[in-house]
Amino acid sequence: METQPAVLFLLGASHHTAPLAVREKLVLDAARAAELAARLRQTPGIRELALLNTCNRVEVYGVAADATVLSTLRQTLCEVTGCPPAETENVLFLRHNHEAVIHLFAVASGLDSQIVGEAEILGQVKSSYEAALSRKWTGPVLNRVFQKTFQAAKHIRTNTAIGEGQVSIATVAVDLAGKIFGDLAPVKILVVGAGDIGLKTVQAFQSRGARAITVASRTLSKAEEAAAAIGGWAASLSALPEILQTADIVTSSTSAPNAVVTAEMVGTAMKHRRGRPLFLVDLALPRDVEPECARISDVYLYNLDDLAKIAEGNLARRRAETVRCHEILAQRTASLWPQVAQSLNGGG
Amino acid sequence: MTSVPLDRLLLWLAAGLYLVGFAAGCLNLARRQPTPGSRLVLNSLLAAGLILQVTGLYIRGLAVGGCPLGNKFEIVQFVAWSGMVLYFVVGPAFRISLLGLFTAGYAGCLAFLSLLIPEWDAVHGVKLFGNNPWIELHASLAVFSYGAFGLLSLTSLMHLLQNWSLKHKRLDGLFWFLPSIVQLDQINFRLLLTGVGLLSISLVVGASWWMRDTGSVDTLKLTLTVGVWLAYLVALVLRWRRGLLSTRFAWTCILLFATALLSLGSVNSSRHHDVILTPIR
Q1: Could you identify which of A42, A51, A274, B54 might form a hypothetical disulfide with B242, taking C-beta atoms 3.0 to 4.6 angstroms apart as the criterion?
Q2: Which range of residues forms the domain containing residue B94?
Q3: What's the rounded Cα separation, in Å, for the pair A145 and A106?
Q4: Is A161 within 8 Å of chain B by CB?
Q5: What is the rounded distance in angstroms from the CA atom of residue B50 to the CA atom of residue B25?
Q6: In terms of domains, do A154 and A192 share one?
Q7: Number of folded domains that form chain B
Q8: Among A residues 175-194, those touching chain B with beta carbons less than 8 Å apart
């Protein structure tokens, strides 16, 4: 009787195949992940294993003694997660051998992510591999494939434009601030409104070194609360005209029905700024900053639409770059596969 | 068939390298994907061009027995060369993105233009500065300050482009790689300070000799030179007192340099070649 060759496999579901409702059922918390791994490792013929579990995907990578073992995988996953098999019919996908490799390369490079080119996924793939390695679930095949995956992902990020340009409103605003001020460390930021959007945007500025932050709100206690949360100072909205004279970046996200930052206010402030530019980020709907402010010299005004347009443009450029990335990854997979195949069948 | 003199041949090659560097940089920008080492390639091309240009100018200097600043061709070549030298001084210190590309285009165009107009390379006498090293220093410092002003006009142009792109929300292509407004403003001020400093020293040196023989320089040259220096000095004082800022300052620097370049022809043609000044021993 002829022996079947060992198989490198991937069983998974991602945002491409599974709607949110199904992904919610398939998600693996620590206990479920441990249970799934234990069950799969008890399955005769499963030699190696690694689980990749993020908010947008559940993927099981492994090496099976032959293809017949794979028929039980889907059932095991459904049993552990409690997701009815009928719901996973067109959701779970199975890839074999070099197709599994190329998929992992694409995932780690951010090509398969919901926000194409995001870098977080590489860290998640690394963590998944390290977890599997520390538990001795992996062997020569997966070790080689994952190591090559990290190299491929690094190559893609370094040599293509897949990660270029920011794709979220907050990070686009931070990028724009960099185009105006360069180093953000000495920049003074004023947050108008103590809402979540403004504070999240400020966190993005803080991650790029900004330190001097003032929160201004109609209610001083709210401003104080928000300022304490982000390590800044609090001010009343009535002090806005004075603060505008010294602040470099103003992000505004109040729910006020009328403009909070007027052209007259900005015009007066600019006379005291002695040529220092002012970056106004209007994140509110209806708008907080009078559009006429954009006409004032050295004032740069961006509203939600402007920022979204830049983010979409960057995302479109990233998507266009995926074609070249996939070509590079296909070449890398082709050169790697003979070694993996040899490993699968007991060689090198 | 007439063969190209060695100095001009080297200057042609230098101009060619500058323009190749400029074209390569533009290509990189158009692809929006700077290849690894693209900056090194550009800087290597510019450095090679600079070496060829300085060799060409040196050969010519040997022929005329002094700093080759005897006609419009030589002056324009010297201005292009000094701009490139300053780029290699300023570039690594301030890490101004795209400055190399802009300098390549600027120096390449100036050098090429001077080579394309044979009338600019009129024959002139040797010992142009009458064996007087101080007059030679005065002339070379003056032209070198034009290099600083040339670079200043480039960074001013970059400032205007960056301001336009941010105001009009056009951040793709070339605009994506431009340095920040604040960084450009700082470098503009320092370049203006450098240029005015160099020109002031040059004028002090020149004036100390002119005082001994006020007829050695004609009124037109004197008026234009002092006028250019005064205009830049006023711009510097206004910028320092923050009375001339941002785009108005950038436009002023560009217009001043255009005026200074245009005045070079008149300054050169009004030179008194027959006046031989020798240092007092």
Answers
A1: A274
A2: 1-128
A3: 13
A4: yes
A5: 17
A6: no
A7: 2
A8: 176, 178-182
Å between A58 CA and nearest CA of chain B = 33
Of B56, A83, A70, A39, which is closest to residue A58 (Cα–Cα)?
A83
Indicate if A177 and A282 belong to the same structural domain: yes
pLDDT, tens only, B112-162: 999 999 888 877 765 666 677 788 888 889 888 998 999 999 999 999 999
How many structural domains compose chain A?
Answer: 2
Give residue B125's pLDDT: 65
Q: Nearest-CA distance from A247 to chain B in Å? A: 15
Convert the pLDDT of each residue in A309-337 to its tens digit.
999 988 998 999 999 999 999 999 999 99
Give percent of chain B with pLDDT exceeding 70: 88
Domain match, B263 and B137 both: yes
Query: Is B278 inside any structural domain?
Result: no
- Would you say residue B258 lies in a domain? yes
ipTM: 0.81
Q: Which of A158, A160, A181 lies at the smallest CB-CB distance from B182? A: A181
Would you place residue A167 in the very low, low, confident or very high pLDDT band (cuts 50, 70, 90)?
Answer: confident
Q: If we measure between CA atoms, which residue out of A104, A87, A17 comes closest to residue A56?
A: A17
| Cα–Cα dist A23/A30, whole Å | 16
Structure tokens at B3: 């063969």
Q: Which residue of B has its CA nearest to A177?
A: B180
Do residues A304 and A246 both lie within one domain?
Answer: yes
> Are B77 and B142 found together in one domain?
no
